[in-house]
Amino acid sequence: MANEQFLLLQSLPLFHSLEEEDIHTIASFCTVHHHKAGDVLFYEKDSKDAIFYIISGSVKFYKVDRFDNEIFLYKLYSNSLIFNVSKLIDSFFISCYANAEFLEDSTILHIKSTPFREMIYANQRLMKKILEESFSMIQQMQCIISRDVVFDGTAKVAHMLVNELETFNKLKKHEIAYMLHIQPETLSRILNKLTRNGIIEIEKNHIVILNVQELKDIYE
Length: 220
Description:
The protein is α+β, with helices and mostly antiparallel strands. It has helices spanning 2-11, 20-27, 85-90, 113-122, 124-150, 153-163, 165-170, 173-180, 184-196, 212-219; strands at residues 30-35, 40-42, 47-48, 50-56, 58-64, 70-77, 80-82, 94-95, 99-102, 106-112, 200-203, 206-209. It folds into 2 domains: 2-133, Jelly Rolls; 151-219, Arc Repressor Mutant, subunit A.
C-alpha cells in the first residue's frame, strides 16, 4: 500500500520536481479519498487541518447569499491544489473561503497541513510549485473579476467558448447559465446570434467554433 501511494504521488504534476525521498515523506501524511458527484468537500467557515489536491474529477466553489441563493464562483479540475495561501503560511488550520461541492465522481488527495507546511519551508522545489499554484489561483481570480464585473452576457459566453469549449459542450444550458450568472433565455439568444453571424454552428447540441478570432474580439 505504501508503495502504491508513493507511485501515485510520483505521477502527479505537483510532485514531479521532488526527490524520491521527499515524495516518500509526503506519502506518509497523505490519504486518498473517493467522492461522488454532489458530495460536499467542505462548507464556508469550516476549518480543516488538511489541504486537498484533485487527482481526477472537478469541484465547484460557491457562496450562498442572505436569501439562500447559490452564487457560483469557479471550478477546479484534475491536477489542481485546493488551499488558502494566507492560512497555509500563517496558521495550522486551513480556513475555507467558500463551499466546495463535487461536480462528478472524483478522487482527492488529502494532505495534512502541518507536516506539509514544514516541508514547503524546507524544500525550495516544493516552495516553487506552491508559488506557481498560488499565481495560477490569482490569475483565475482576476479572470473571474473581469468576467463577472466587466463582461456583458455575450462576452461571458464568448470567453467560455474560447477557453472551455469541452466543458461548455458537456453541460446543459441551465448549468452554463448558472456558471456565467445569466438567464438560460439570455444564453439561448446569444448562441442564436453567434450562429446567425457565422461565428459558431451547433451540431447535435454541440458547439463548433467557426471563427475563434471573432469570438476573442468580443471580450478582448
